[in-house]
Amino acid sequence: MTSAMTAHLFAITCDATQPVRLGRFWSGLLGRDMVEDPRDGVLVLPGADPELRLRFVPSDQPKVVQNRMHFDLTSSSLEDQRQTVARALELGARHADIGQGPEIDHVVLADPEGNEFCVIEPGNNFLAGCGFVGALACDGSQAVGYFWSAALGWPLVWDQDEETAIQSPHGGTKITWGGPPHMPNGGRDRVRFDLAPGGGVDWQVEVDRLLSLGATRVDADQDGTGRLVLADPDGQEFSLRTSR
User: Which residue in 61, 66, 141, 165 has the fewest CB atoms around it within 10 Å?
Assistant: First the structure.
C-alpha cells in the first residue's frame, strides 16, 4: 500500500487556452463528470478508484511541440476501438501524424488543443486490466521511472531495456517511461504531474523528501495558486500543493 508518508498524485494537469472546452472533451470521451477547480480551471473527476483525476488550467501559451506525456486508451475489440475513435472525432479530436507509419495497429489522435493520445488495439497484454485509460506514456529515462516509483510509493511493474513502468498498488492506469532516445525539451511541459502531500505529512518535510530523491526547485516561491514548482531528474516540471 502507498505509505501516508509519500505524496499522492492529485491530478494530471494540462495547460489549455480553453480549459472548459478541453475538460468537456475529456469528460465526454471518458464518460466522467467535470467540475470547477476551486483553485483554477476545471477537474475531470475519477469515475471510480483508482482512476486518475485530470485538471485543465488556463494558459495563453500555444502548443508548439509534441507532448512528452500522452494517454493510451484501451479497446476490448476492433469494434470497440473503432467506436472510441469515432466518439473522439465527434467530440472534436482529429487524426495526428507523429511519424507512426501505416503498419501500426493503434490510432493516434489529438484532442481539440492538439494534445496527442492513442487508442490502442485489442489484445494488448501489457495494458490488460488497467481500465479504459490504460497508460500515461511518458518520454523519460530509467532514472526518472525510479524517481517516481519512490516519490509516489508505486511499485515498478516493468524495468527492462531502460524502459520502466509504475502502477498504483490499487491497480489502474500504468505510468510508463520509454527510455532513450529522448525528445527535446520544449520548455514548460503542457502536461505534468500535480502532487499533494500525504495525510498528516508536514509540507516542508515532503518538499525535502522529494529533493532528497533527486527533484530540483524551479520556483523558489509558490506560484500564487498554493503550489511549489519542482522538476524531476529529467528536468520535467511538476507541482506540489500546499494542502489537499
Answer: 61
